[in-house]
Amino acid sequence: MIKINLSIRTKLIVLFIVFVCMPLLVFGKLWYDKSTLSIERSAADFNEQIVKQANEHLNSYFLDLERTTFPLITHPLIRDFMLLTPEQMYERIMITKKIQDEVLQQLVFGRPEMYSFTIFSNEGFSVSSLGSSLVEKHYETYLNLPGSKNYSVVGIRWNDNIPLLTITRKFKDASTYLTSGVLIIDLRLNEISQIVGQIEIGKTGFLWIADAKGQVIYHPDHAKWGTNVPDWYSEQIQNRESGTFIHSEKEVKDLVVFHKSPYTGWTIISQVPIHEITAEMLSLRNISIWGGLALVLLVILVIGGFSLSLTNALTKLQRLMRQAENGNFNITAPVHQGYEVGNLYRGFNTMVRELRRLIEEVHTSQIRERELIIKQRESTLQALQSQINPHFLYNTLEMINSYAIVEGVTPISRMATALADLFRFSISDSMQIISLKDELMHVRRYLEIQKERFPYLQIEIDMDENAILHINAVRLSLQPLVENSFRHGYEKHRLKPIYVGITGESGNGHYLLRIIDKGRGMDSETMNQYNCFFLNDGSRPIREEEEDEALTRIGLRNVHQRIRLLFGIPYGLQVLQSDEQGSVIQIMLPSDKEKIYEIGEGV
After folding, report:
1. How many folded domains does the chain comprise?
2. How far, in Å, CA of 369 to CA of 380, rounded?
3. 243-254: b or e for each residue (b if 16 or more CB lie within 10 Å)?
4. DSSP strands (E only) in 374-455
5. How far is CA 403 from CA 400, 410, 446, 457, in A?
6. Quick check: is 410 in a domain?
7. What is the strand order of the sheet 242-249 is part of?
8. Domain end point (choices 171, 187, 203)
9. Measuring CA to CA, which residue among 376, 462, 479, 366 is closest to residue 422?
10. What is the rounded CA–CA span in Å between residue 401 and residue 388?
11. Confidence band (pLDDT; 50, 70, 90) for 544?
């Protein structure tokens, strides 16, 4: 037995041709043939329903017309008219006038398709809705129509190039039961055109009507109205009640469906080209062909992709290595199901994570070093400030206050007293934890001095004095933020301080303070950087170009770190708003007076 060694790719292609392409072609051919036949049958059934419905509409129309004219049989004026003799000339004129005014006008009213009504008696007298009869020469023919029907649809006749459909109704004498006269109704074909013409069959299909005498009653081509039916009609339809057949003419095949009405004797014929019926089928066939080709292309792509999957995996790993060489360590190799390739990917991810960790450690060390420099500068500043003799400052401010009182300069006295209180509060007590009420009192002294500087400054403090007595706060945590509003909200942008507000409210286990100003705030990027710093507990790195700005706003960072150090997460600062309309800085403090981190105990 000869064993043929084929590659996996070749085997897949052979299996695809044998089990996909060939069955698809065979099934497609069978499906197309069967579906075409089924669609033709469905179209024939559908057209047959349409033809029957059109016949029913016409029958309903003529039945309604028959019911409308039925009262004329027993109408007293009509009976009197039928009994007139040639000697009754005056009576004939009077009755004729009354019939025109009282009977015929009512019949014509509201029915625009009515062309004329004419009544003939056996004596040859006539009365018409038009005033003069247009059918006198046909009177004998209509009166002696064969058959026993009292109501008949006669056919089309022409009057001044207007096609009219004539309908007759015989009058019977009540005593002799013989025909005493006839009613002749001439109809315009607009009502029939509306009933039949509004039915659409495909794009070019149409309906037409022929009567029992082989005359065309209605056709979309108005030139065929009143003409004889074509020869193929006599061969295929003349003696049949209904049916379906294929008619070929000028290399065009039409599906013909017809149905004859037993009431009117008319036959309604539907003609629609076969290619319109199968157009949808052709569209489905084309879709199937394109779908098959798409399936073939998909399988080819799958086979090609399967054979190239290993090479692609190695190429992807090589690209990731190049990115790592360029310093991008925020990349991760995707999970791969293959054992060998999966191990390579996992080893690469482990290596990148370790490199990223080492770099972050170095970066964190640099951040801490910069923070140490900032804190060292702050300590130096505090050391310089503390070198001034406190007693000397107290005595000096008291002397200024005394002179101001003696001279009656109240503003100077208030400013000196407030400044002394500020200085005493800043250095008199080393405790870090104080009540929020004491911290607020210190801020009030600061604002009193600012109020003297800026008389137009509006100060608003909205806090519950009893509640804040039991709220813990960090010493000198509120005043630096208020000072920040003056320096960076107003003075930095050369704006006059017009408003500073401080509000407080209790929350769910915490107390929220908000410092509000109407100066010009920082841009959104800087605000996001500060909030990121506050959220990450001060661990976010500060870029070199931000260092000067950070030093000028050292109070914000210092206050946040001291609050976080004493009270822990989530307490601290947050910038709620900072834009052209002003800034809102929020401080979150614990409402529980005993909630202090162990690291803050005894501070």
Report:
1. 2
2. 17
3. ebeebeeeeeeb
4. 433-435
5. 5, 10, 22, 27
6. no
7. 216-218, 206-210, 267-273, 252-260, 242-249
8. 187
9. 479
10. 20
11. very low
